[in-house]
Design brief:
alpha/beta, elongated, binds calcium ion, TIM Barrel, single chain, 556 residues, Alpha-Beta Plaits, binds ligand C2E, 44% helix
């Protein structure tokens, strides 16, 4: 007989003796190392190490058909075993169902962990006793412990279904209600609760046994499904979305995140976290309510998080600065203007490029603040040139599309020109023209009518089309870097550039090329009739004091 067994035996002897008169509770001794069970107590089942379910069933502690209650029980004990190493015992109140249709009843479960020589929990002594009605009443309303609220059971069911569908793919799907707080605020917490209850109830009807689900926190639910083709996931989500959206005519939107399991050995918790990341990635996106997890997303979201955490402080500490990139006349070499480009001089990370923070700001609306800040710096700079007796060159500022739809941008710009008091042709506006929307062209028209010079940014980058040149309000086309470099590679491409330039001039549009990186490009453009260029060949975007030096050097 091994030591372990003798510890178990010694302990069971002790329990049997001390419990001779106890006919109210059931005692089970669980051998955590071998996962076997013995029942002790008022009726001793032969220690044949039977399945605990058998033992429990015999005592009518848990209705075998009420699998969730059984799972709750085991999950609680298991987690207790882990915690047991820190604490010696665990006490829980558990409401369980005895018969299929009966009510839940409250049980007191006390577990004592027996720690062996190794320092690990080797046995758990579980004592289960039903509360009397009076006791239960004094404990308050019985909390129904069903699978939709018990993550531990959920984890068990997931592993069970993953084993069952070894040859299928598995997806973790998480969803929540966008701005659920608003529902609570507008309709009251009761209605909010009602909706969540409606979700739980509906899911338990819609989903089958092989599609476990769980309510993770307030309004976040998780479902795990198996599938063969990825289309099935979308069909499934659309089905869930349509069934759960629009409770009693209340408007809300569900946001879904999907993580497809690539590594089955990964902890279910982490798989769930991936679904969370996917869900968060589409928060606030008006067009999409389903996000998919991929590894890249994680780093992106992390960076997004730090950027969002720091942006407000960055304004206070003046970490956003304006760099200027000169625009040159190719034939004379003179500086004929500049583009204002934002840089974030982060106190920790150093210079962060706009490619990293602009897309995030565009998504969260902070771009409105940043743009205003840069515009003002540009206007201030023009004023400083004039005051210093330097011949000013026009600065072009970038206007984010977000601005065009939500803000009276024209009066803001006019206000700035007024405040710094200079001629309107010194401030030029760069807008990326995409597939034309009514709103945009109306604002662009207004800008143009107010006297601004309008530059169509990124021309040829894929969004713009020749068709829109027909009616455009723009004055200048800014040829995109990629258009220039790609098309310059072939004879055919060079022809296209050449004709685009001559056609634009024909219809009265001026042209400047962006991203000019070498003399060959500059000379080619010049031959085609485009005499203005901006790019690393001339200068990268540089801090204002460097720009000023250059401006004086080159132009005087
Ligand atoms: P953009 O308006 O197309 O600006 C031109 C970008 O091309 C700049 O990148 C510039 O550094 C880069 N560039 C210029 N010449 C060359 C070249 O010869 N070779 C290469 N490889 N690149 C060149 P930057 O400064 O990183 O800005 C990226 C984008 O961020 C800008 O593209 C613009 O869309 C946006 N952005 C920058 N500052 C602001 C701002 O203050 N407000 C708004 N709304 N957007 C801004
Ligand atoms: Ca630009
Ligand atoms: Ca551009």
């Amino acid at each position: 007989m091994t030591n372990t067994n003798s510890l178990s035996d010694r302990y069971s002897d002790f329990v049997i003796k001390s419990l001779e008169n106890d006919d109210k509770s059931v005692h089970i001794l669980w051998d955590c190392c071998g996962n076997t069970y013995k029942q002790l107590g008022h009726k001793i089942i032969a220690d044949d190490c039977s399945d605990p379910l058998v033992a429990i069933r015999k005592e009518n502690i848990i209705d075998p058909s009420s699998v969730s209650a059984y799972d709750v029980f085991c999950a609680q004990v298991e987690s207790g075993i882990i915690k047991g190493a820190e604490r010696n015992d665990l006490e829980i109140d558990l409401s369980m169902k005895l018969e299929g249709d009966s009510d839940y009843e409250l049980y007191h479960i006390y577990i004592l962990f027996l720690i062996g020589k190794s320092g690990k929990v080797e046995f758990a002594h579980i004592n289960i006793r039903k509360y009397t009605e009076a006791e239960a009443f004094s404990k308050g309303v019985l909390s129904v412990f069903s699978s939709d609220k018990a993550p531990q059971i959920f984890a068990k069911r997931i592993s069970r279904m993953m084993n069952k569908f070894a040859d299928k793919e598995i997806a973790f799907i998480q969803f929540d209600v966008e701005r659920f707080k608003l529902i609570n605020d507008n309709y009251g917490v009761e209605v909010g609760d009602e909706i969540l209850k409606f979700f739980s109830n509906s899911l338990s009807v819609i989903l089958n046994d092989d599609q476990p689900f769980c309510r993770l926190t307030a309004d976040v639910f998780m479902i795990v499904i198996s599938f063969d083709e990825e289309d099935e996931i979308l069909d499934f989500i659309h089905m869930i979305d349509s069934m759960l959206t629009g409770y009693k005519g209340i408007e809300y939107r569900l946001i879904f995140g999907v993580a497809i399991v690539e590594d089955r050995s990964m902890h279910t918790r982490r798989l769930g976290d991936n679904a969370t990341l996917a869900r968060q990635s589409v928060k606030g996106n008006a067009l999409k309510n389903i996000g998919f997890y991929n590894g890249r997303l994680k780093t992106e979201l992390y960076q997004q998080q730090t950027i969002e955490d720091d942006m407000t402080e960055a304004v206070i500490h003046d970490e956003f600065v304006m760099y200027l990139q000169p625009k040159h006349c190719i034939s004379s070499g003179r500086i004929i203007g500049a583009e204002a480009l934002a840089r974030w001089i982060h106190h920790d990370r150093g210079i962060i490029s706009p490619a990293e923070f602009i897309p995030i700001f565009e998504k969260n609306g902070f771009i409105l603040k940043l743009d205003l800040l840069i515009w003002e710096k540009a206007c201030k700079q023009i004023r400083e040139w004039i005051d210093a007796g330097i011949e000013p060159v026009p600065i072009s500022i970038n206007i984010s599309r977000e601005y065009l739809e939500s803000y009276d941008v024209v009066s803001k710009l006019l206000e700035l020109i007024n405040k710094y008091d200079f001629s309107i042709n010194l401030l030029q506006l760069e807008i990326t023209e995409t597939v034309d929307t009514e709103g945009t062209s109306a604002v662009v028209r207004k800008m143009k009518e107010s006297g601004f010079t309008m530059l169509m940014d990124d021309f040829g980058s894929g969004y713009s089309s020749l068709n829109m040149l027909k009616t455009t309000q723009f004055d200048v086309l800014k040829i995109d870097r990629s258009f220039l470099s790609e098309f310059m590679e072939s004879e055919r491409g060079r022809k296209i550039i050449e004709h685009t330039i001559s056609m634009s001039k024909d219809i009265g549009l001026d042209i400047i090329a962006e991203g000019v990186e070498n003399n060959e490009q500059a000379q080619f453009l010049n031959r085609c009739g485009c005499d203005k260029a901006q790019g690393f060949y001339y200068s990268k975007p540089i801090p204002v004091d460097q720009f000023n030096k250059k401006l004086i050097e080159v132009n005087t």
